[in-house]
Amino acid sequence: MATTRRTQQPAAPVALPRDIRAMQLATRVLLLVFAGLLLGLGAAALKRLPMFNLRQVSIGGDITRNSLPTVRANAVSRLAGNFFSLDLQQAKQAFEAVPWVRRAVVQRQWPNRLVITLEEHKAAAEWQLVSSVASGRAQEGQLVNTEGEVFDANLGDVEDEDLPKLYGPTGTASDALAMLRRLQPLFEPMQSRIAELHLSERGSWSVVLNDDTENDSGRTGTEIQIGRGSPDEIGERVRRFVATVARSTTHFNTELRSADLRYPQGYAIRLAGVGTVAASAPQPRRR
Questions:
Q1: Could you say which of 100, 141, 262, 275 would form a disulfide bridge with 284 (CB–CB 3.0 to 4.6 Å)?
Q2: Residue 216 within any structural domain of the chain
């Protein structure tokens, strides 16, 4: 006689009332918030421990124009905070405000040290705005670095370096430095160096060489008006002049006082002790 077995079905889970589920969820959330608060308070207390006060500020990199005591006196005293709370951007600005400092890299070093790496400006020329010169209110203490950037400095720091002087409108220092580097090698056959390079507000270039000639302005140095044009055009004009002017100075056995290269097919020169009379001399085309 066959028998039939009955299999028991698992009991269905009993759903908790909605208010109990909500209470459990709220309890978990509160526990997480409380744990987060404890961690936050613990971290804040840890950061305030004396062991994290800045104990050492190491300064390295380019320190040629400044001394370590000068840098520390100007910047370290402006640092505020400890290893964790110090604002690195403000620290960077404090060091870059020191004269001659171009860039500062500020890094934390565990647990209480700050490492500063400095890059100084490399002076390439003195800088004057043509607008300030024209108004008679020339600004003092500005230089151009090798990157074409203008920065403030004590010109007494470079008085023995015989730097060339650049003049130009606002925002043209980089162009003036590039033109100086292009033209300087071209004047080497004359055994002269550019003492001043001028860029007018109309875009016209001129130079004053570092010789002992008294020019038409009553100052020392041969004045050469070059005019306007692309860098290649300016360079070709100067190259042609340097290659041929020695014929005239040698012929008259005298010194060159000034030159005007703005003529379309040549140039005009003024020689010491040599006068000329020209009833209908052609005028230079403004370039």
A1: 262
A2: yes
